[in-house]
Amino acid sequence: MGRIKTLDEIKAMVRARTGKRNTFRHAKREDIESVLAGLTSKDPELWAQEWSRVAKPYEDQGDELEKTGKFDEARQAYLQAYAYYATGRYPTPHTPGKLECFHKSLQLYEKAGRYFSPPLERVEIASQIGKIPIYARVPKDGKPHAIVINFGGIDSFKAESYEYDEGLQRAGLASCAVDMPGVGECPIKASPSGAALFSGRSIIWRRAACRSQAHRDHGPQLRRLLGRQDGPRGSEPLARGSRLGRRHSLFFPGGLAARVDQRCELFDGPRHRPLPALRRG
Q1: Same domain, 130 and 225
Q2: Cα 61 to Cα 45: distance, rounded to the nearest angstrom
């Protein structure tokens, strides 16, 4: 078990991750330094307060730009506000202030999503395990598209799939982002039964495929599951993994079989490298 970081070590970690990792990859250096100067303790409420402080001006700027019809600029301002609110809840929203940051981050991401191309759709899938919120983006060209179901890790929530989704859109694929069990808005806690999210008790992949209409023409072989974890570890209690390089076949209770291809040449998130053509089948 690792030891608890000191405040100075936390600040060093934030600086090291700025522009590179987690929600910090969207942060501006001057905003980071402003926040770190205000962090005089490891109080999680202070953490939430400081990140909210730098987020609010971008939120207000986005509202003003939207009113004047400057939608591209509004999208960028909303995304910047989202990034800081999301950092305010990082790594988990376990206090009132951090929970408020979490809710604000979703609100701002969905505001920005109105001006994505194609736009972001928030869809709540009804299932036996509860409502499953997903973020779907489907090309508006009237054609069938394969859809990628994308989920993150234990501290990465569905809105953080933005760069991945952008790459998928450039590759002609539809995208669906969902929180994994125990994370964000997922109705299932992290547990040995968490695989129900991907099983017959949950119709998430079928409903996601319906958003793209791909299943009607190309069948289940066009659906891909893109996990951002390195291989099947972390989900081994929930799935059996067959590993070849960084390609995996996962089999979940209830009948979902998915092919995961995590080779680095597929997509390198923050640098916006486009996906090459994927093999069907």
Answers
A1: yes
A2: 25
